[in-house]
Amino acid sequence: MKITVKLIGPLIYEGGFSEKTLTLPRPMTAGELSAHVKIDRKRPTIITRNGRAVANSDTLADGDRVVISHIYSGG
Amino acid sequence: MKGWTGYILRINLTNKTWKKEAFTEEFAEKWVGGRGFAAKILFDELKPGIDPLGPENKLVVALGPISGIPAPNTGKAVVAAKSPLTGFYGDGNLGTHVSSQLRKAGYDAMIVEGVADRPTLLYIEDDKVEFQSAEEVWGKGTYATNDWIYAKYPKSTGVLNIGPAGENKVLYAIIRSMEGRAGGRPGIGAVMGSKMLKAIVVKGTKQIPQERADEMRQLGIDGLKKARELDQKSGWSKQSTNAVLAWCNEVNGLPVQNMRKTSHAEASKVDGERLNDARVTTYGCPNCTMHCGITIEDKEGHESELDYENIGMLGPNINVFDLKQVGSLNYLCDDYGLDTISAGSVLGFYADAIERGAVEGDFKFGDAEKGKALLGQIARREGKAGNILADGTLRAARAFGKNSIDYAMQVKGLEVAAYNCKSIPGQALANGVAVIGGHHREAWIITFELKFSKRESYGPEKAAKVIELQRIRGGLFELLVACRFPWVEVGYELTNYPKFFNACTGLNWTLDDFWKAADRGYALIKLHYLREFPNATRKDDYPPAVWFDKANADAEGPQKGVVLEYDKYDSLLQHYYDQRGYDKRGIPTKELLAKLGLEQEAAETEKYARLS
Ligand code: SF4
Fold first, then answer.
1. ipTM of this model?
2. Which of A23, A68, B79, B129 is the most exposed place for a label (fewest CB within 10 A)?
3. In degrees rounded to 5, what are phi and psi of residue A24?
4. Number of structural domains in chain A
């Protein structure tokens, strides 16, 4: 299953990449994917899929574009 | 009275006089400081209808009970006046050593009245005020003015100054301080310019009064350490506020092409990663451990300090995706003393108006060089276009006609910041009801909308969230006065702030006390508005029409075809009014005003307008 992951802001330095397409060995939830790319579980994050927010428990589908960001309250 | 110095410095530029005026404990506890002081002083002292650029207007610089005391990010000052851009109370905050120096000089606020007979630098040192000539730097940019000031005074002195935009009364001229700090979006720099006041320099040598100074010292040290740790752990200041640009692009909230579009394939060229890669150095405000001002070398080789708002508005909003060119546009705004949000919005609006045939001109989206030339024309009010654009998008739209007002991206005359809200109803509301006009400072709820509500919801939970954040961001932080970023960006606990306040003042406030003070401040600013605009309606709290226009919807992507809906927005607005206790026009009711202790202000307002 192929998923494109984009990390935002400081997560880039935590995960060690900005954007990449991963081939996952098995279906994963959004939360599992976040842990898989080494984002600290305690970090408050917002995960969006194809432009819409998803819950950590939502299962991802082949071809999804997933964006993981720290939660910001803006500038 | 501890925590406050108990004095306001009143300076008259016409007569070259000054006096030290005491205020009461009751005044201090009711209005707290910062925005609260400024709104109350200006309400009492300005008659509605005065010319904001005339001698009757007053410039207020106001601090709060924790201003200037070492603690997380207390190096800010509020600047306020009747706004020439919006026509009612306007304010802003900026990082400056004025926050500590004015308090050490013995004042919690300063009121500047009248007009000087020549360009003036006000020098304040404790009980002394000097009216020095600033003729040498009149017409010069803020960088040269800063250098001129720093050649005479150490960098630790508090400095506020304006550039040519303020001198030429551009309606969105700001006030600058230090390297890169700016505030007073609704034209407070133009008010300073109208008074022939080029700069204010402040030095104080006294102790800032505190009830439990030892406790405050320890709280401050612990707080600064904690904020630093949180920042380092989260990595926020690697990209600072510009981390949000890539995210806005992903979730279709980026301002592109005067907010016609919500994302762009080239957005990554100006995102936080590119900004961090291009970093030359980092600047910050006093008493801050999270320095968020990232500088880059611009196209001409200047050091230009960037953040999300100025990149969003001077980059994608005018289709410029070259970070160096964005840096150049930003550098010019800073040097001229122009607000970067409004300047980016004005350029975007102008390109849009030309493209849609509302006006003739040769500026096109993406033309950074022409944009730079236009900024100079605006700052100097040069030529027909420069002069019209210097008045902001609302007035420019009135001049251009042909329904261009629909895509003038402003609310109550103030240009909205770098969030494209046509498919984000709660943030559209936050702009609509921002108390000084379209602004993100008061409330920013986009992640809440996406994660904890439904993006397409117009439900009461969004109105409640806007109010909650207005109380924190536009209330607590603007009253105390402190930068909101330790809380907003790295999760420094809000409960620390009453502790600081109580150690300084000896009072025993909780956050609930601050919410009431915040509501009082908001209600008073609404009365400012009503006094100036007695025929105010709820339509004044609507965001720009183009966000409701199907023809402006995204043509592709997850938000394809989505725009705001009038009926639903109106019902969201009603939720906000109901929860606030405002009437159908969005004005606080007499019952609410009485609850907030504003009976006298209500009676004063009724001389000019109706209250329900
Ligand atoms: S976080 Fe940024 S805006 Fe806030 S005090 Fe620090 S440098 Fe100033």
1. 0.96
2. A23
3. -90, 140
4. 1
Q: Which of B9, B552, B596, B529 is nearest to B260 (CA)?
A: B552
B157 with B275, same domain? no
Expressed as residue numbers, the domain containing B102 is 7-203
Residue A14's CATH number: 3.10.20.30
pLDDT tens digit string along A29-43? 999 999 999 999 989
Report pTM: 0.98
User: Which residue in B241, B242, B244 has the most chain A C-beta atoms within 10 A of its own C-beta, making it the best mutation to test that interface?
Assistant: B244
> For residue B290, which of B72, B15, B120 has the smallest C-alpha distance?
B72
Q: Is residue A14 part of a domain?
A: yes
Tell whether A53 is within 8 A of chain B (Cβ): yes
Query: Can you say whether residue B235 is alpha, beta or left, with left for phi > 0 and alpha for psi between -120 and 50 degrees?
Result: left
Residue A66: domain span = 2-70
With CB atoms and an 8 Å threshold, state whether B250 touches A52: no
Displacement of CA B112 from its chain's centroid (Å): 20
The answer to the question of residue A75 being in a domain is no
- Provide residues with CB under 6 Å of ligand 1: B 73, 95, 284-285, 288, 290-293, 483, 485
Q: Is the peptide bond before B191 cis (omega within 30 degrees of 0)?
A: no
- Which of chain A's residues have a Cβ under 8 Å away from the Cβ of B279? none
Amino acid at B284: G
Contact A72 B489 (CB under 8 A): yes
| Partner residue facing B447 (CB), from A12, A50, A71 | A71
- Cβ contact (<8 Å) for A72 and B243? yes
In the block, residue with structure tokens 């506890």: B29
Q: Quick one: B568 exposed, middle or buried, by C-beta within 10 A (0-12, 13-18, 19+)?
A: middle
